[in-house]
């Protein structure tokens, strides 16, 4: 129960957040990461492991829950370090590209559904007996 969290639990959570922050803070070693261009960097692999463990969802919870405001700066640092190798321009363009692609796909699906609905209406109208 979070309301009855003991001091020991609070310290454990803080230490875990600091550990994640420190792991993400380790700088990239260019000599270690000289692989094929498509290979994921060590930082990317750590991020993937954090995602698989569900830590990203926990961070979202801690960031959005008013009762957990004491962790806000730790969460902010971790999120900042998660995006440290990304340029804001690339992230914004990626989001816009995905949104535009999703919009085109949704429009295509909507048009196909509309055509199907019109065909069904025509079929029903032809099946009605005339008086």
Automatic annotation (TrEMBL):
GO biological processes: DNA repair; DNA replication checkpoint signaling; replication fork arrest
Coiled coil (residue ranges): none
Record-level GO cellular component terms: replication fork protection complex
Keywords from the named record: Cell cycle, Nucleus
Stretches assigned to the Timeless N-terminal domain: 1-131
Domain of life: Eukaryota
Subcellular location: Nucleus
Entry GO MF terms: DNA binding
Name of the molecule in the record: TIM protein
């Amino acid at each position: 129960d979070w309301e009855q969290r003991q001091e020991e639990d609070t310290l454990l959570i803080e230490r875990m957040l600091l550990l994640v922050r420190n792991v993400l803070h380790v700088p990239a070693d260019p000599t270690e990461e000289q692989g094929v261009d498509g290979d994921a960097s060590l930082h990317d692999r750590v991020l993937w492991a954090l995602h698989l463990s569900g830590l990203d969802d926990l961070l979202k919870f801690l960031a959005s829950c008013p009762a957990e405001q004491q962790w806000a700066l730790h969460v902010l640092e971790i999120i900042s370090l998660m995006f440290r190798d990304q340029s804001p321009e690339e992230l914004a363009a990626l989001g816009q590209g995905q949104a535009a692609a999703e919009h085109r796909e949704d429009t295509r699906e909507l048009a196909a559904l509309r055509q199907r609905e019109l065909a069904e209406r025509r079929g029903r109208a032809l099946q009605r007996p005339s008086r």
